[in-house]
Amino acid sequence: MSKGLSQSIKDVSIKTKIIVPLLLLVVIPIALIAYNTYNLQKKLTISLTRHDAIVTAKTTLSSLNAMMLNGTIMKKRDRKQLFSIYKKIKGIKGFQVIRGNIVNMEFGKGLREEMPNSPFDDKILNSSKTQTEIISKNGVPYELMVGVPFVAKTNSRGINCLMCHTKASSGDILGGIKLVYSLKPLRVSQKIFTEETLIIAVIFIVLIVLFLYFIIKSAIIKPIAKMSKLADEISKGHFEEEIAHPRNDEIGSLAQSFNRMQISLKKALELLKRGRE
To answer: What residues does each domain of the chain span?
Structure first.
């Protein structure tokens, strides 16, 4: 099997043996660059979406702080109205303010939509760090969930959270915000990027192949073909034609050697004829 494969490779033309490796040296880096760029674009989009979520969450927290200062936060209707405003923000597919146990103990249970109802909500209420989770379908990113906790602080934008939340200690989680973003724009942009990258790559590869083909044909294939033709003529006893060798590379050196061989054969045949006479 290996001998057969080795022989098949040997039987391949020189042009193919040269172009294929060079082509692979071009195609592989292009494929790697495209793949890395694709992943970087994905990470960048998710990172920017996460940043937008954090900004939105902090803005919501500022709004809740303002409602707390003016006393309207206790009115469920006013909170619902505030939530409806954030739900209409472009790009946000889901918005939920999550109420923590400390707040429930101090001010009673809030709206039904403020209650935690998923493991992701529990993560938000049990960590001071921003939570991120990508929801995929069939291996394709579908939605991005971002959870930003509200941490009790003595100085949160100039406000002492512990003045209102007397049962809380500094560092306790008062609640949080869960935002859900659709990743459809990401999938669309990645599809466009993939299509455009493939088109550019194909055009680039075709141009490189044509360039390599003409270079190899003029620099190697044509001189070798001429030598092969001349060898056939020499085998028939024709010694008139010589190979031009204006180049100083290996092909030029081979052409000179071939011409010298032809001259030597011609002289040898002439001497042989004279000897017979």
So the answer is: 12-190
Confidence tier at 245 by pLDDT (50, 70, 90):
low
72 phi and psi, to 5 degrees?
-85, -10
Residue 190: pLDDT above 70?
yes
pLDDT at 108: 83
SS3 127: coil
82-114: burial string, b at 16+ Cβ within 10 Å, e else: bbeebeeeeebeebbbbbbebbeeeeeebeeeb
Q: What is the pLDDT of residues 104-123, one digit of tens each?
A: 888 888 888 889 989 999 99
How far apart CA 67 and CA 59 sit, in angstroms, is: 12
Question: Residue 56 corresponds to which tokens in the numbers above?
Answer: 């939105």
Q: What is the pLDDT of residues 134-150, one digit of tens each?
A: 888 887 788 888 898 98
Tokens standing for residue 194: 């993939």
Q: Give the pair of three-digit tokens for residue 202.
A: 């194909």
Residue 181 identity (one-letter amino acid): Y
The beta strand positions in the chain, using DSSP E, are 92-99, 131-137, 140-151, 173-182
DSSP 33-97: HHHHHHHHHHHHHHHHHHHHHHHHHHHHHHHHHHHHHHTGGG-HHHHHHHHHHHHTSTTEEEEEE
3-state secondary structure of 175: strand
Q: Which homologous superfamily is 12-190 in?
A: PAS domain (3.30.450.20)
Q: What is the mean pLDDT of residues 1-18?
A: 61
